[in-house]
Amino acid sequence: MSKNTTLKTNLSSALFATAMIIFLVNTGFARSNDKTNISEANPSNTCSNPTANALGYNAFVRNEAHLGSGDTDGPVAIGGDLTLDGIITVAGQTAGTNYFNGDSEASSLVVNGKIIYDHGQGIQLNQGFAKVGDLQGSFVYDLDNNRVTTNTRVTPGTYDMIPRVQVHNKQPANSVNHNNLIDFEAAFTGFLARSKQFSEFDANLEIDADNKIRLAENQVNVINITGNELLSLPYLTFENAPNIDTPLIINVDVSVDFEWNIFNIAGIGDQQGRFILWNFYNAPSITLKGGGTLVGTLFAPQSSVTKNSSGNVNGQVIALNYYHNGGELHHHVFEPCIDNPTDNCNVVVSDQEICLGDSTTLVAVGEGTVVWSTGETTPSITVDPTETTTYSVTITKDGCSATDEAVVTVKSPEVSIGENIIICLGDEVTLTSTEADAYLWSTGETTQSITVSPTESIAWYKIEVTIDGCVATDMVDVFVTSPEVTVEDQEICLGDSATLTAVGEGSMLWSTGETTPSITVSPTETTTYSVTITKGGCTAIDEAVVTVKSPEVSIGENIIICLGDEVTLTSTKADTYLWSTGETTQSITVSPTESIAWYKIEVTIDGCVATDMVDVFVTSPEVTVEDQEVCLGGSATLTAVGEGSVLWSTGETTASITVSPIETTTYSVTITKGGCTATDEAIVTVKSATVSLGDDISVCEGEEVVLVATEADEYSWSTGETTQSIIVNPKETSEYTVVVKQGDCEAADTILVNVNSVTSDAGSDITITKGETTTLTASGGDTYLWSTGETTMSIEVTPEVTTEYAVTVQKNGCEDMDTVVVTVDVDMNCSIVANAGDDVTVCIGEFVELTANGGDSYVWSAPTIDGVIRDQTIRVSTRRNVEYTVKVFKDGCDNFDTDSVMILVETCDGGGDGTNRIAAVYPTLVNSRTKMSLDLKLEKKQKVTISLHDLTGGNKSTVINRFVDQGDETVDINFSTLPQLSEGIYMMRIVGDGWSKVEKIVVDNKKN
Question: Structural domain tally of the chain?
Answer without folding.
Answer: 9
